[in-house]
Design goal:
By secondary structure, this protein is mainly alpha-helical. It is 62% helix and 0% strand. Helix 5 packs parallel to helix 12, helix 7 packs parallel to helix 8 and helix 11 crosses helix 14. 21% of the residues are buried.
């Protein structure tokens, strides 16, 4: 009796097996190069887990930046339909990243201590992609750029991001273009600085929610932004709890206070009026 898998394969008469000189799966995705990127610096069995989780996270962040860069342009052009697809995709990606912390949490304190000292000052704090993601979403603290001074190209990329309007800035400019009374100071603000909640913005979002049937695309934009921040908060919380589970209250490898730093980061609100409006409705 043949194995079921073999029967299934035998029925695939059109299967292409002559791939010499043609584009195949491995070459299209650069699989050999990708699988060569995991280079442990210790003999620890568990270091491979640590590397793969962080590299996979960087790939997901790359996709989030790709989607959010495009979403920002769509909002600026008043094309909200495509924007909603992009922001919804980012929310799904964040769900994947939350689940990734569950995998990393299988790394016990004893496992991590075997190779942690080999990492030197290397730290997730130095992820330029994560920093640009924060900046794009509005959490702009230029003091965090200090760790990129030895990498001028990355520093320039992050400085350029700080000079652009955030995703939320573009949303507020859209509200103003639609005739909602946004204080001119909000629209002309220095976008390199962190955003602070403004009464006129709260009033504008309140109008959007109270007239949701009439202003449905703006109402949907508001909810997409809330979805983004909700998922981002869950991601940061799982990061905090995973780090505390693995290293307790130790200082981070990059010199931050570790859990203390991550706990303070939870307090930052990206789109403040969208949370405040829940109270005033």
């Amino acid at each position: 009796m043949q194995h079921g898998g073999a029967d299934a394969l035998a029925s695939e008469h059109g299967l292409q097996a002559d791939l010499a000189g043609r584009l195949d799966y491995g070459s299209y995705l650069a699989i050999p190069e990708l699988l060569a990127c995991q280079r442990p610096i210790s003999d620890s069995h568990d270091e491979m887990l640590f590397i793969v989780i962080h590299q996979a996270t960087e790939l997901w962040i790359k996709l989030m930046l790709h989607e959010l860069d495009a979403a920002r342009l769509q909002i600026a052009a008043d094309r909200l339909g495509p924007c909603f697809k992009m922001t919804a995709r980012v929310s799904r990606i964040q769900q994947q990243l939350v689940q990734a912390w569950d995998v990393l949490s299988t790394l016990t304190p004893s496992d991590y201590l075997v190779f942690r000292h080999r990492l030197g000052p290397a730290s997730g704090f130095q992820s330029h992609q994560y920093r640009r993601l924060e900046f794009l979403l509005g959490n702009r603290d230029t003091r965090k750029l200090a760790v990129f001074r030895h990498q001028p190209a990355l520093l320039g990329e992050l400085e350029a991001e700080c000079a652009r309007p955030t995703l939320y800035d573009e949303a507020l400019r859209l509200l103003a273009r639609r005739g909602l009374p946004i204080d001119p100071g909000v629209l002309s603000r220095d976008v390199s600085r962190p955003y602070a909640a403004q009464p006129s913005v709260l009033a504008a979002w309140e109008r959007v929610y109270r007239r949701s049937a009439e202003l449905f695309d703006l109402y949907e934009l508001a909810e997409e932004l809330v979805d983004l921040e909700d998922a981002f908060r869950q991601w940061r919380f799982r990061h905090l709890t995973t780090v505390e589970r693995v290293i307790g209250m130790k200082t981070g490898t990059g010199g931050t206070s570790g859990v203390g730093y991550l706990r303070r980061a939870l307090d930052y609100v990206l789109f403040p009026e969208l949370w405040q409006v829940r109270t005033v409705l």
